[in-house]
Design a protein that fits this description.
Helix content: 40-55%
Largest sheet: 7 strands, mixed
Shape: globular
Mean pLDDT: 91
Number of helices: 8
Radius of gyration: 17 Å
Strand content: 15-25%
Low-confidence stretches: 1-15
Strand order of the largest sheet: 3-2-1-4-5-7-6
Order of helices and strands: HHEHEHEEHEHHHEE
Length: about 250
Amino acid sequence: MQKGVSTASDASRPTGSCVGRMFDRIAPTYDLLNRLLSFGRDSSWRRRAARCIEDRGPVRVVDLATGTGDLLTTLLRERLHIVDAVGLDCSEAMLRIGREKIRRCGLSDRVRLVRGDATSTPFPDESFDAVTMAFGIRNTPDARATLDEIHRLLAPGGTAVILEFSLPRNPVVRWGYLAYLRFVVPLIGAVVSGDRRAYRYLNQSIEAFHSPSAFCAMMEQAGFRDVSATPLTGGVASIYKGSRASSDV
């Protein structure tokens, strides 16, 4: 159970290559299972996250751990002043699906997808006005290193928006949610994707991740200002928002 800080030791955290291979395996059914397991709520969560980015342009945005590009396509629909959109992910199979999705949405001229590591991206300092990340930071080997990278990528005054699973504070809701994560999610994941291990990892990584208060403190330690956490659907997910100071000292 979550205790405010990660219960997973560094040795037990997956490496970037292991996570990439896992997502390569489940890529064909990833979007379907997102809808099934969240009862369709994941789409509304992404819209809420996209609306955290001010629609005053021009805006340059990078979406880390972009997966199949769901948050990126939502951003481009919700925020018309985005002039440069990049998605980065460690799984080539996920990116292939994302490229096809972007083509079908008619957004190929507005976005590019690249393969890479969210903790060590190929982009120069202060390259983006907004950095987003949905359901990815808990999969990185070092969440603090990822926050440091996000801070590096942001231009002064830029905004970071991180959407991630969390555990409800209400003890009754938490108990029911944990039961769902531990028993129902791996079963449905195994039936649909054929990969029970990946969806067993899902519940373990959610339970081991930092509490909202602890993660906000980590963002502040990484240099972010005006940090906030907004619970979604009773606290089963949270939107974390922070900004880079207009002039760092």
